[in-house]
Design goal:
The strands form two sheets. Strands 1, 4, 5, 7, 10 and 12 form a six-stranded antiparallel beta sheet that branches. A six-stranded antiparallel beta sheet has the order 2-3-6-11-8-9, with no helix packed on it. It contains three helices and twelve strands. The radius of gyration is 20 Å and the shape is globular. The longest helix is centred in the last third of the chain and has 18 residues. The chain has a single domain, classed as Jelly Rolls (Sandwich). Helix content is 15%, strand content 32%. It is of the alpha+beta class.
Amino acid sequence: MKTLLVTGLLASFITGSASADLLWYTSFEDVNDLGGKYYDYGDVNTDHWLTNNEGEAAVNGDGFSAWYGSTGGVGLGDGDYVGVTNYGSQGFYDGDQGYQMSDIDGIMELHFDGYEGSATMVSIAIYIAATGYEAADNFSIHWGADPVNGTLYSLDGNGGDGNGSVLEEASGTWMFLEFDVSELGAGHLHVRGESNSGSEAYFIDAVSIYGDAVPAPGALALLGLAGIASRRRRK
């Protein structure tokens, strides 16, 4: 079914009024990104970009970077299971690894590189761990920095502690989500989470960015040479 979902997505682009190319994809499969608990050695009372630490799970990788926002808690300074992981009974949507956010005690955002306004659609697989959530817990997906117009998907813990919060209702299964971002302008995809318990875990996998491919500078140069050669042949 997973393959059919992705194939159907590609087919819809190809047969539609405009085609789109797969610009970037990750399922976090680099085994070098695996490690132990992640410790944030920065100031947990200030907002900052996170850095990778040797021997710990990578929070940053090829095409993605993590950011931490303080809410007055201990943050990730006490060591938490965040970043690239192969752990969990939930398995993973694609491959053997994914990206985890849990026990954040603040705000954690995973940002994916932008594509100069060429992106038209994104897709992502998410898994919300089945447990109780409090009202302060939340998970959301955004395009760009605008918290209103750029919110693609959001879940919160209102009515939580087993009373049927939106987070709880969405938990316990992998969900494959796709979003049209063609009208949102230049920007980038990012995923945001808040939680304060190790059991309150969010997993991310199979992230795709589609759009109009822009040839690399080397490819543009080759196209130029091909044009020159063609003109020479016509003379």
